[in-house]
Amino acid sequence: MIPKDGIMLTYSNKHTFPFIGLQRRAMDVGGIRKCMEQRFITACLDSGCARLCRQEGIPNCVLLQLPHIPDGANKSKRKSRGQYSYSFVTWLKHELMYESLKVAGHVFFFDADVVILRNPWPETLYGRDELGNRISGIYDAMYQKDRGLHYKNCAESANSGIVYFRNSSQYHDNYYPLMLSKKNEIIISETGKLDQDYMGELIDEAKLKYCAFPSNKMSAACLESGHSKLQRDEIITYHAACAKDVDQKLSFMKVAIQAFSGNRVNQ
User: Under a CB-based contact definition with an 8 Å cutoff, are residues 111 and 182 in contact?
Assistant: First the structure.
């Protein structure tokens, strides 16, 4: 079940393209690749990514014409994840979702280091508490939990690695203008804050109906469950967040695919 007006987005460059290969490998293992790829758009941040898409036969890759992104601006105060280039790219997903929601009814965004093993769309119809009980939907916004922190009901601190938005006037008139007002602070300032540090708070302020995805189904390395406790009959997606480098992210992604399939992943 994918809404007829729903689309999925991710982005990559040539350096992170191996993530895209494992994303597709996971879809193959879950038997959902043909269905997912019809609505799955990969935004390429450089020509190398676009070339690899052609070579690997991955459809719906779109090369974005981006301004030069300087690497390491404000590096002395932003160190590991707060560099200008990183902040620019994490912000970019919000621009992509906003433009997509001008024409689509529903948008699901996945970071490239998210493996998708089952169709995630049914989870947008309702929320769940940590016991797995359904909480009435439909929601304007849903997102991955960040580090398993508990706030209220089914709402949690937000991780923007997996985000769902429904096309609504509240999103266009209330939420996106609030997020846009933080753009300079996210990209330019030296606070070290990223988009997800504002996202949950602004969704609440914009009065969107929202809920976090359950951690046993939309899991991540940052969450309490950890990749060592993945359950084959529960996992839908797995985000290789909090890994220290590309190699560790690839390793985490392979672990999730292996946990689902029971077969070692050598790619």
Answer: no
| Residue 266 falls inside a structural domain | no
Handedness of CA 79, 82, 8, 152 (dihedral sign): positive
Nearest to 36 by CA among 15, 16, 59, 18: 59
pTM of the model: 0.89
Q: What CATH number has the domain bearing residue 190?
A: 3.90.550.10
The pair of three-digit structure tokens given for residue 115, joined into one six-digit string: 């493996």
Return the HEC string of 36-66.
HHCCEEEEECCHHHHHHHHHHCCCCEEECCC
pLDDT, tens only, 219-256: 888 765 556 667 888 899 999 988 889 999 999 999 99
Domain count, the chain: 1
Say how far apart CA 255 and CA 267 lie, in whole Å.
12
User: Looking at the DSSP assignment, which residues form a beta bridge with residue 164?
Assistant: 108, 142
Boundaries of domain holding 133? 6-261
SS3 call for 239: strand
Question: Which residues is 109 bridged to in the sheet?
Answer: 9, 163
Q: Which two tokens stand for residue 174?
A: 């209330």
The packing angle between helices 246-261 and 17-30, to 10°, is 0
Tokens for 80? 């590991």
188: left (phi over 0), alpha (psi -120 to 50) or beta: alpha
Determine how β-strand 106-110 pairs with β-strand 6-12: parallel
